[in-house]
Structures are given as C-alpha cells and as structure tokens.
C-alpha cells in the first residue's frame, strides 16, 4: 500500500441547531492512500456530506486532525486552505455548479483564472481538456445550452484542470439519467486509473458498489469500512450492471 | 487572480444582469449629471453678472468726491473739514497720468425736457466726448458730443432711446430743438437701447456737454470722474497716480474715494461662486443616494450569487479575491455611471446654452472633476460592505443553497 494521502484522526463535527447539538461526525478515524477509489455511502443525515466538506477544506472540524499528504491542514489559515483547494483538490457537484454567464471553456478555465495562471497557458490546457472530454464544439456554449451530461463533463474538466491529487464527487450522477450517469462515472473512474484519488459520496448502492472501498456511514460514525475482494472486482468488470 | 481577469470577470458579472446594471448606472448618471448641470447654471449666473458688469466699461476706475477711508491728520484738515469738490480742472489734470487712457467727467442732475408741448422729467448727464468710449455705449442714430474745449460746450444733446420714443414718437428726432431746463439744445444723436441693465439706465438719459450741465445746475462740481486705465495690468498704477494727482491739487489732502470695477466684480464673483458651491453640495446629495443604491443592489447581487461565491471558494478563490471581484464590479458600475452622467450633464448644459445664448452655462472644471470623484468614491465606499459580506460567506452553506 502506498503512503496515506488522507489521514483523519479523532475528527468531531458538531452543529448547533437552536439549543440542541447535532453530532454530524463522531470520533472519525480514516486513512485513505493515494490512488484509492472510495465510495462514501449512507442514508441522509449520516454525515457523509459533512465528511466530504471536511475533506475538501470547506469546513473545519471541531476536534481532531486532518493530514493531507502528510501536512496538517486543519491549522492552516483560510487563505492557505484556499491555496490547498486550488492546487490539490477538485470538486464535482450533483448540480454541476457551472457559472451560468460563462462559456464552457471559461468555466473550465475558472480555477486557473482564480489561481492567476497566464492566459496563454490557460488556453492551451483548456483546449486539451475540451478535447479529452469531447467538448471541442461546445467550447463557446453557455451551460444552459448544454445537456446534463455535457454539463457534468464540463464540471469534471474544471475539477481536473489544475491536475489535483484528489477528486471529491458529491452525488455526481444524482441529476443525470442512467446512461449519462454511467458515462460520467466511467470518466471519473478513468481519472482514478491514471492515479488520481477519487472519493465519491452517494446513496446509490449500485454506484457505490463499483468502488474498491466503501465507507458506510450512519449517525456520524463509520459503521463499516469494506474492501472489495479482487474476485468481486473482476466479476464486476465481466458483468457490468 | 490577475487584474485583467478580475476586470473581465466583474464586467461579465455586471452584464449578466442587464436591468440591474442599467438602473444602477442610471442612478449614478443622474447624480453626476445633476452636479454638472446645477453647477453650470450657478457658474453661468456668475458669468452672466460679470459680463453685465464688464459691459459698463472695462479697466474702469471711478473717482468719487469725499473720503470713505480713515486717514491720518493732515494740515489741510485744520483749515477746512469739508471735502473739496471735484472740478473739471481736476478731471483735466487726471489726463496727464501715464497709466490713464481716457477721462470722462460726469455731472448729474434732474431737469425737465420739453418738445412741442410734451414735458418730461429726465436725468441729465453732463460729460465729454470720451464718455461714450469709457462707458462702452453705442449710438442708434447721429453722433456723440463733438470734441472741443471741456469748458465751452455747444448746445447739443444726445437722448436715450426711451426719451426719443416718448418725446418724438414717429417723428425724426435728429436735428430737432428741445428745451432742457431753461436752455435749448439741438438733438444730434440717439443712444441705442440697452434695456434694463446694471448701473445707470441709459434709455432715460439725456447727455449734454459738461460745462452746460454745470451751468444748468448752477454748480461747478462733478458727480464723479470716470477714468479708463490704459490696460488691465495698469489699473493699480492708475489708481495710485490718480490719488497722487488729486492729493497734490487738493492741498495735500486725500479727500476722494477711488474705486475700481475689479473690486465690485470681485465681490459679486465671491458671492455667486459661493452660491455655485452650495448648489453643487445639494446636487452631491443625489450622489450619496446613488451610492446607497449601489450598496443595496450589490447586497442583493451577493445574495443572488451565493452559490457562485461558494463555488469560487471551492475552486480555490480566497476571500480577498472574492472581495476584489465585487469591489471591482461596484467600481466599474460607478465609473460607467459617472462618465455617462458627465456626458449627459455636459450635453444638457450645451442645450441650455443653445436655448439661452446670452446665458453662459458652462460647468466649471472643478465641479465636473468633483462630481466624477464623488461618484467613484461613494460607489467604491458603498461597495465595500457587500464585498466583505461576499468574502465572508461560508462555502458549505452557500453551496448547499439551491
């Protein structure tokens, strides 16, 4: 097993709703190695979205440490965390979250624009990404002129444009029909094959079953950390659902 | 984020909601246009009054009998305490001063004018041929007083336009004999109508040679002496020379008051300049209102774009980047509105000048610059709060909002 990319130890996250305290995550310890394909599953309210937000540095734990690539990121300032997000983490959302007034190409280029990369290098990388994701003739279309699948492909292109080590996908197929969802998940798995660590949050069992490792969450606790045997893996490949 | 990218991003965000942008730009434009137009009116009024004053005659220095300023004790005071009168000799002496171009003595009184049974009270001004040049008067008909010895005048009179109309109606006035007081004069000229202006109303004036006027009023004093300095720069020199000459002639006593047109003009200038600033201040309130509108609209914009802000944070934007993006947008809207308002205001001032050609409604440069500056400053100032709010948004909550 390669070195741990993600090390969560003793993570607690408590939300205050009025007088009551809600423990979204209770004493969570998880290690995820570089290049893993992990599905986080569980019913709604189980804390899987909170976990994803913590992993993506969008939220801070109340207790515990989160080490990303050996570096403790929980103590970083907001500005430094933004830098880590920019360089190491790519997000794919259920509702795509494309900026409606920007074209597909501009949406893909957005992380590079925010990072202050020179326009020439941006154009080069966007052109390659458009080609890789089969969006060449959709470059100057706005999101409302794209189909759901195309939108999610733009979103994935955007998530990968900074070549992050980690991709966090929150219900990436939730707003798509089955065949487009299949297409999108294959794209993500393709990225994982190239060595990118992929973490997918879903409550779709069929989707979760494709991952090599499944984290089952319930009431903020990691209930089951299941590794699929190589036998099952091959079966899944032979007989695609 | 690089500056060009920031500007492009802000521009796209602004044009993404055309109605909102239009209304905001309009509000800002109206504010700036109000400043420009109102100051144009205020400054136009100032220039109008100054022009009216200048039309009395330029480089004018007026010598009045009597002292209005406190001076030291003088041996002359021991003999008599009444000020000496100004005489024609004084006026003639003033012509010797190097900085003096023209001198016109003026004796004034009221008398009756009668022609063929019509009788009317008029103001009679006794003066010399130089008067028409010094006072910048124009003749409608005939000629002015002939050159000659100031002490001996021919019995010729120049009458104002209104006197001509009332006394002669449709008849020819030139060459007619009129009786003024107990003397007969031949009308040789008619003054052009000037309408109601500042200073003496020349439409109801009768001008006769100064010696005859003094004889008519049985006095040898002058009402005042009008002096035209040889240039604008020599007004002060002329003033000093006049004072010196009069002092020499009046046994060393400084018993006249010398006023310049500049002093009167400066007072009006200051008065109307203050008014313009006051008007500009009132107009600036509309700019403050526009600034508050900028804040309101930007706050709504932040609320509407919550998801986008959350996304930008997820993609690695720092709070500073987001704050700058919103500030840039507010600044761009303000600048556009301000420039548009400037053009609008200048156009309106031009229209006013077209409609009223005699009214010089030019906005002063400082007002245009201050209008633009205030618009920019309020726009950015009121953009800070929404921008900070945007920068502080929690990405988790913003993203979960559908």
How would you characterize the overall build of this protein?
Chain B: One of its GO terms (cellular component) is plasma membrane. Chain B: One of its GO terms (molecular function) is ATP binding. Chain B: Its EC number is 3.6.3.-. Chain B: The chain crosses the membrane at residues 21-42, 271-295, 330-354, 366-385. Chain B: Keywords: ATP-binding, Cell membrane, Hydrolase, Membrane, Nucleotide-binding, Transmembrane, Transmembrane helix. The complex is a heterodimer of chains A (241) and B (402). Chain A has one domain (4-238): Rossmann fold (3-Layer(aba) Sandwich). Chain A is built from eight helices and ten strands. The longest helix of chain A is centred in the C-terminal third of the chain and has 16 residues, at 178-193. With 241 residues, chain A is α/β, with parallel strands linked by helices. Chain B has 402 residues and is α+β, with helices and mostly antiparallel strands. Chain B folds into two domains: 3-53 and 266-400, no CATH class; 107-223, no CATH class. Helices cover 55% and strands 17% of the residues of chain B. Chain B has a six-stranded mixed barrel with strand order 2-3-8-5-7-6. Chains A and B meet through α2 and α3 of A and α1, α10, α11 and α13 of B.
How are the elements arranged and paired?
The complex is a heterodimer of chains A (241) and B (402).
Chain A: E1 4-17, E2 20-33, E3 37-41, H1 48-55, E4 63-68, E5 71-72, H2 78-88, E6 89-92, H3 104-115, H4 119-132, H5 148-160, E7 166-170, H6 178-193, E8 197-201, H7 205-209, E9 213-218, E10 221-227, H8 230-238
Parallel strand pairs in A: 3-8, 3-9, 6-7, 7-8
Antiparallel strand pairs in A: 1-2, 1-4, 4-5, 9-10
Helix pairs in contact in A: 3-4, 3-5, 5-6
Chain B: H1 3-15, H2 18-54, E1 60-65, H3 75-79, H4 88-94, E2 100-115, E3 118-127, H5 131-134, E4 139-142, E5 156-159, H6 161-168, E6 177-180, E7 183-191, E8 205-209, H7 210-217, E9 224-229, H8 235-249, E10 256-260, H9 261-304, H10 306-314, H11 319-355, H12 365-392, H13 395-400
Parallel strand pairs in B: 3-8, 5-7
Antiparallel strand pairs in B: 1-9, 1-10, 2-3, 2-6, 2-9, 4-7, 5-8, 6-7
